[in-house]
Prior knowledge:
three-stranded antiparallel beta sheet; mainly alpha; 11% strand
Amino acid sequence: MKKVATRFAPSPTGALHIGGVRTALFNWLYSKNQNGKFHLRVEDTDKERSKDEYKDQIIQSLKWIGINYDGEEYIQSEKVSNHVKVANELLKNGYAYKCYCSSEEIEEQKKRARQKKIPYIYDRKWRDKKESDAPKDIKPVIRFKSKIDGTSILKDLVQGDVEIDNNTIEDFIILRNDGTPTYNLSASVDDHQMNMTHIIRGDDHKINTFKQMQIYQAMKWDLPSFAHIPLIHTIEGKKLSKRDQASTLDDYSKIGIMPDALRNYLLRLGWSYKDKEIFTIEESIKFFNLEGIGKSPSKLDMSRILSMNEHYIKNIDEDDLFNQLTEYCKLYKSEIQSDKKDKIKKSLTFLKNKAKTLEDIFNNGQYIIKDKVDFNKDDLKLIDDKAKKVISDFKSQFEKIDLPSREILEPIVNEIIKSHGTNFKGVGQPLRIVLTGSKFGPGIYDIILSLGKEEVQKRLSAKIA
């Protein structure tokens, strides 16, 4: 029995799509569950659109979400000579042929198909013609000689048996007239030479799988097992594309979604294990199987992602949360100054309250991070003469305190409530505005204790209107 080997094979023509991340995750988990290997293959043969920056971004994205591949990246463009060699072997053994149709002829065939409203299939004009009939002024493409009769069955590990009529698969091009291989040839040769045992990918690849199976059979190679995962749709039920908002990993990390939360969400997007919702990495590897993958498309639900992220914010170790927050701020906001870090760390317990993202925590902590209070203009209007008197009375009492604590602050606030004939909001709101710039935010005792005596006195003394 061969050791399980899977691969993720993105093209570096854009940022890594969220559907691709889930495909990589399922391949990685299956390999780890089976004590096998997981490989990254960079399919960079489209020289016009492939860029190193996208390759680097793909590698960084996988690393960010916790997917580690075995060995070095397999770079497809370095293996083109192997693909060409197999094309020539197929040609020599009668499984492929040279096609001399001009681009005008092919365009005419496509036009006729459009007029008849039927899918275009190449008419196999050169399938059985002799080489001596070939025109001298046209460089041929090489087409695979697909089966015409009977049916083929794909024993899909997710979808079950899928059967199609062989005559619906055209004689597809395996080598272009400039000598470069096409996707189906390159992918088949690479998968064989990389000793892949399982090909797990989106179910938009099913027709490619039937073509690749024929290449395998013609070359007398052992077929790998195939599993086709249903695609991810938008909440409206349309296929998710790179043009959609929140379709790449960067879209999520920018708003402060944490890798563990997103990985857990993607794991549960189209896969289930009993009624379990939250999985550690170890549990994900232990329980993952192909049987748990559903057959219907999954809908990407942003509110569910935020809810999952909120769960992780509430439950992970605060040292870990603080490290992720500082890294997030460094990348996407402004780096937290070293003299503020300790205050933020000690205040995380309440700054993370109701926070769904790291960005929310950053926003909740603005009053600590910034030296100068940014006042909300509408909230500032609430500081009338009565509110100013409340602030002044609190300041007088606060100055007498050596070391602020909740136990010391509560009686002072209660006394001011009583003497001004108001309620807790009547004291807490003006204090919150003068200390943070907004009537919204953490509890007033938390704000005072997080800022410390010196900073509170400075802010209470500042001229605000």
